[in-house]
Amino acid sequence: MGHVRRMEFDTVILGAGAAGLMCAAHCGGRVLLLDHAGKPGEKIRISGGGRCNFTNTGCEARHFLSANPHFAKSALARYTPWDFVSLVSDHGIAWHEKTLGQLFCDGSARQIVDMLVGLVRQAGAELWLDTSVEGLARSATGFDLRLTREGKAVAVTARRVVVATGGKSIPKMGASGFAYDIARQFGLSVTNTRPALVPFTFPEGRFAPLSGVALPVRARAAAGPAFDEALLFTHRGLSGPSVLQVSSYWREGEAVAFDLLPGQQALPMLRAARAEAGRRGLGRVLSGPLPARLAEAVAAELHLTGNLADLSDAVLGRVAERLHDWQVVPGGTEGYRTAEVTLGGISTEGLSGQTMEAKEIPGLYFIGECVDVTGWLGGYNFQWAWASAMAAARAI
Ligand code: FDA
């Protein structure tokens, strides 16, 4: 047997992503932050199209899905979007609001990663990359960890362990169910998990001819709230912010409803068009308020190819209804390959909402996306990562 180095820390944080970096930057003591990847904060780097939608100024508990909708309230109230904005501004990072309270870097998401890594270093924490966890067990004083660091075995002891290894989305980037495995090992329950904030797919390339068409809609899945955001047709199916939002509420076999003319009145508009230009076809008339390719597809779907003048009020009523309540049943989703987040996770029943510590396992904490708290699209998931990390850091 070769010599195995043994090192002692107060706190070991597993996962140098959004939550792990934030926690390591603020918790104090002798801290080891480790990650199996070769770089920290990779999801931050690719987030928000490279500009990182790092928070949302309107953040409230209602923007999160969880078996316990109250769980996130305490952490979110004690670390607000404006707390993170101060941090960002103090570091000279310029930002702007894009839409709906969503704050983005003017420059690059890398600035957020660099800021957090800088804070981790300033706090005196060790950052070990290319490091994997082979084993984690309780000891008399806390926890024993067996690690492999750059191919070498290292034994580490810690009074506390913070699990911040995220969810299962984007396996290509090293995402795995690691946090859930640890939770189960220590007797915590894990809810069903599924890809969320993910595009819908349809069999037989149903929408491929419309690929590239985009428009503002109001979208709704059976169980969820309505989202007024853009819809985008792709060669695989439907995407865009409205679709990503409703995907978190959608279940297999269910229909998704789109109001293709949100805030408008289709029937009076169609009647007026019939009166003014009755010799036009429906597709041509709809290509005023709708993108032309979609307008023609809707007319074809309704088998209405003649002149508008030939359509009765009843038929126009059906057209209007279809425009305001266009229902489609997705075949599925693109899955974890492209999902922005994992819905569900470690059950909040076993965790303290004040500190994120496991109620039955003193010293073991779970923060960030691995917990059963999943935000809407729009900076909410990062705000949860920051806030849950701060809840743990303050307790540590
Ligand atoms: P995160 O995934 O950030 O970090 C987990 C870390 O643990 C990773 O560094 C990983 O390598 C490491 N790890 C995993 N398993 C391990 C193991 N077994 N051993 C050691 N280390 C391990 N949210 C938002 O609010 N605004 C946005 O703009 C976006 N944009 C966006 C784009 C894309 C493409 C994706 C995929 C996601 C987003 N998100 C987002 C979601 C956001 O990125 C996500 O919710 C947070 O990064 C979650 O933070 P965590 O720290 O919990 O996990």
TrEMBL record:
Coiled coil (UniProt feature): none
Domain RsdA/BaiN/AoA(So)-like insert positions: 194-341
Co-factor requirement = FAD
Q: Which residues form the RsdA/BaiN/AoA(So)-like Rossmann fold-like domain?
A: 10-394
Supply the Pfam families for this chain: HI0933_like, HI0933_like_1st
Keywords assigned: FAD, Flavoprotein
Identification of the protein by name? NAD(FAD)-utilizing dehydrogenase
